[in-house]
Write a structure and sequence with these properties.
This protein is α+β, with helices and mostly antiparallel strands and 587 residues long. It has 16 helices and 19 strands. The longest helix is centred in the middle third of the chain and has 37 residues. The chain is elongated.
């Protein structure tokens, strides 16, 4: 007869160990389903870039926009070519209601290649003309509520008015393309032509933020790669300066591929990340299994008489071995119930801890549930085989003789099991301590600005002056500043800053702030002056960091003060230079 306490300890120990592995199985299962809701999943590919500048090498998920035009015109094997540019994101206004929107400029092939069904509008004509935009159901509801959305005009800050010509389904969890709006790509061409948005002089060196997707048959892959190699050879003739090549990436490799590309458009969880998480789960699961085996073997003497009597009655070793393994499988299945409960409790917190984790769909599907059950059975067999083997070896004569005996004989398997359990547990504890130190270092890393006692609040279109006045009344609030984005994240707007006196441009990340911002976050100036609330044209003044001045060719930061640039058609003057700080997360 089994002790209830012994059974509880075994079930609890296995449930805890299995819960992390269940999380890992659910995570990998969710990743393997990424983007599979697209009807053309097997026929969609992304073109990626490999840039060798001699001093540094980049693997980019992005490509020059001119590449997709050339492929579309010159390569007959491509069924559809999708162009995506991520410069649409920003604040959008509709009748005084201002909200941030993340979106892309896309060509009309986007609707035909990807499966984001249109709820309103006409797919055949959507995005065929400039200044047309599609909104997701969620974005349309935020702007218009239950009112009709088609034909309404919304205003993108710095970009102009766009007509809503359709509403598409919200991108589901498990999509690497996440957006609130899709605008016609022809709009981007007009904005760059009018210098509302900047375009680099050499369009074949304009990689960042541009993406090329293709729909084609697998039989065309070799021919397409040959064409890509030829394009690279024709367009990048100065091999001494840099070498650029292109390759094809299946849609299924974007999230789960082995290589992590820079300038990616969506989350990445493949390669070493997934393997590292798998190793971590084993470090938790194996000690739980070894613990069960050790406890079961140590309690073998409690069942010795039961086994002896049954063997005298005609029982054989295989019958006992089968019985003990089945008992362990049953305990493992009971532990599975508890582990699934723990999985449900921790999955959302886990998703929030990892970058891009909120896009992972942890929904338990019937197939996933079958995998969980199969996993529990395998764990039961693994944890129960060694105790079952030793219990089945018990000799009735030794049991009834009254003499002490050791069912393990001269073997050292149990000792090895104990050593392995403690070794793995110690390795896990050391790993946790190292990770704790790394996390502590990351949280306390000096990013170049003050993070303590700073609270960031999304405004959602609120009146800035009214909000500032209301907050000023609270004695606990020492200072208030406004910004368009959060520094120290990966979501600052990308732009091209054009030299005022020549055609070349610099790739930058930009953030719009008020005159209190630098002081509030303790960003220090090394040259020039801070913003002034009394400035006549504050929107024509900018502050850059030290790295910008180096990239722009200035020997000293102070030399950059007063120099002129253009951003989205507006002339700007550098008023100050700030010390370098981490404007985005360190990868």
């Amino acid at each position: 007869k089994s002790s209830p306490f012994f059974t509880f300890i075994n079930i609890f120990g296995l449930a805890f160990g299995m819960s992390i592995t269940i999380l890992y199985i659910g995570f990998i299962s969710s990743l393997l389903r990424f983007d599979k809701f697209h009807e053309n999943y097997d026929d969609i590919y992304r073109v990626v870039s490999h840039v060798d500048k001699k001093t540094s090498t980049y693997d980019l998920a992005s490509t020059p926009p001119a590449l997709s035009d050339l492929l579309n015109n010159d390569y007959a094997g491509i069924e559809e070519t999708v162009k995506i540019n991520e410069r649409l994101s920003g604040d959008v206004d509709y009748k005084g209601k201002m909200m941030p929107v993340k979106g892309f400029f896309v060509n009309s092939d986007f609707i035909r290649v990807f499966s984001f069904p249109m709820k309103k509008g006409y797919p055949t004509s959507a995005l065929s003309n400039p200044y047309q935009v599609l909104l997701t159901e969620e974005a349309a509801f935020k702007f218009f509520g239950e009112d009709e959305s088609l034909g309404k005009v919304v205003t993108f800050k710095d970009l102009g008015d766009f007509e809503v010509v359709g509403v598409v389904s919200n991108p589901p969890k498990g999509s690497h393309l996440i957006f609130d709006a899709l605008a016609s790509y022809s709009t981007l061409d007009l904005l760059e032509r009018d210098e509302t948005l900047n375009r680099p002089k050499n369009e074949w060196l304009n990689f960042w933020g541009n993406f090329t997707y293709l729909k084609l048959d697998k039989t065309e892959l070799d021919g397409l790669q040959t064409s890509l190699d030829q394009i690279s050879s024709n367009q990048y003739t100065n091999k001494d300066e840099s070498h650029v090549s292109f390759s094809i990436q299946p849609l299924g490799d974007i999230v789960m591929g082995w290589k992590d590309y820079n300038d990616d458009i969506g989350p990445y969880f493949g390669g070493p990340q997934s393997i590292g998480f798998g190793v971590f789960t084993l470090l938790i699961l194996l000690p739980a299994c070894f613990n069960y085996s050790n406890i079961s073997i140590s309690r073998a003497m409690k069942r010795a008489k039961e086994i002896g009597i049954r063997k005298v009655a005609g029982g054989n070793n295989w019958l006992f071995w089968y019985q003990f393994v089945v008992e362990t499988i049953i305990i493992s299945l009971l532990a599975l119930i508890g582990s699934i409960g723990i999985f449900v409790l921790i999955k959302d917190g886990f998703a929030e801890l990892i970058p891009g984790g909120t896009s992972v769909n942890f929904e338990i599907t019937p197939i996933m549930l079958l995998i969980f059950v199969a996993f529990a059975i395998l764990i039961g067999m693994f944890a129960g085989m060694l105790p079952a083997t030793y219990l089945a070896k018990i000799k009735p004569l030794r049991v009834f003789s009254g003499k002490s005996f050791n069912i393990l004989g001269k073997t050292t398997s149990r000792q090895a099991l104990i050593v392995a359990q403690f070794t793995i547990s110690l390795f896990f504890i050391i790993g946790v301590l190292v990770q704790f130190k790394q996390t502590h270092y990351s949280l306390n890393y000096d990013m170049g600005f003050d993070k303590e006692n700073i609270i960031n609040i999304k405004l959602h279109g609120a009146d800035l002056d009214l909000l500032r006045n209301e907050f000023s009344r609270h004695s606990a609030i020492k200072s208030i500043s406004m910004s368009s984005d959060l520094i120290g994240t990966n979501y600052l707007k990308r732009s091209w800053l054009k030299y005022a006196n020549k055609e070349d441009s610099l790739r930058i990340r930009e953030i719009t702030v008020d005159h209190n911002y630098l002081k509030n976050l303790d960003l220090k100036l090394v040259a020039g002056k801070d913003f002034n609330s009394d400035a006549a044209d504050p929107e024509q003044l900018i502050i850059v960091n030290e790295t910008f001045t180096k990239n722009a060719g200035f020997k000293n930061p102070g030399d950059a003060v007063g120099s002129m640039y253009k951003l989205n058609g507006t002339e700007l003057t550098i008023q100050g230079v700030a010390e370098d700080f981490n404007y985005e997360l360190i990868r």
